[in-house]
Amino acid sequence: MIGVIFGPPGSGKGTQAAKIENAFRLKHLSTGDILRSEVARGTPIGKEAGRIMAAGDLVPDELIVDIVRGRLPEAEAGEGVLLDGFPRTVGQAQALDNMLSEEGHKVDFVIALDVPEAELVDRLLHRAQVEGRADDTREAIEERMHEYHKLTEAVLDYYSRHGVPVKRVSGVGRPDEVFERVKRAVSISSV
Ligand code: B4P
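A: This is the predicted complex of the input protein with BIS(adenosine)-5'-tetraphosphate.
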């Protein structure tokens, strides 16, 4: 079972992915978490990605695809995988399909979180105060929203055109309330 949790920055992908991982025994693979760990460890990848992320831009497709290619086999060895923050461009979605088809796998479902932009900005500015993440400044948030509309949104059309079930779920409300909707959507998609 391969699922994707999808949505704009701050929509709660990471928050919901942790809950889905527990409830459905899917291995959570977050490209944002992997990149932040590379940055924290000061690796060559982290050095390249850190300044791109802090500006709110997407890191190059080749870099992120190589990271996922390296992690996917281990993650696929379990009952399933939940991808969070990947794919974020149509090029990444195509690269993922190629990787999975080599193993006879495919993306089984996409859960897309919908949250109004004003609330997304409020959440990220709030997180800036709590966690101090380098990419939660007002300028970087604006750039992340811009990149989302320019490059990432099109990934949903890509999946719809390729016959992958895309379930849109409102991401507004308490995380547990959102999870009730997400759980229903995953259950329907994974039968
Ligand atoms: P991510 O780590 O994916 O960042 P995100 O979009 O902010 O994550 P998310 O939406 O999961 O936020 P969260 O659940 O934490 O990526 C960071 C950067 O890495 C990107 O900008 C890019 O530079 C780079 N990157 C990652 N993947 C890439 C790729 N594939 N290609 C290229 N570049 C890539 O939730 C946000 C906040 O809202 C939290 O504070 C949370 O507590 C709060 N929240 C969650 N649910 C809520 C709710 N229901 N109500 C109120 N608040 C809620």
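The first strand starts at residue 2 and ends at 6. Residues 115 and 172 are 6 Å apart (CA to CA).
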